[in-house]
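Consider this:
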Amino acid sequence: MISTEPRQEVLVLYLSTSALDSPVVGWSRYDGTGRTRPTSGDSDEPPYKSGLDALLDGWRLFQASQLLPPYPGHEYDTSFLKHEFFFEKFGPAGSGEVDKTPG
């Protein structure tokens, strides 16, 4: 029996700054509905130009990375992408067949 309860979709956007209207520099997408199976590198273009565009399309922001100042003397070190934002949508569970189209 296939569940009819809503399933979560998660969109992770890495932005160039901590402002939601700044450009997307990296992203990941996870589909708990089972309707699609997005993978890293399946598109050269981000799904949205900014975090604000994701909000305008109905995604709900549920987590933003904590802003931590760099340790003195390490202001220009490179590391992980700091400005990470998690968004969610809920949709019906898929039929079991997976849509292979990216994005």
About this structure: DSSP finds one helix and four strands in the chain. The mean pLDDT is 81. The helical segments are 51-56. Residues 48 and 57 are 9 Å apart (CA to CA).
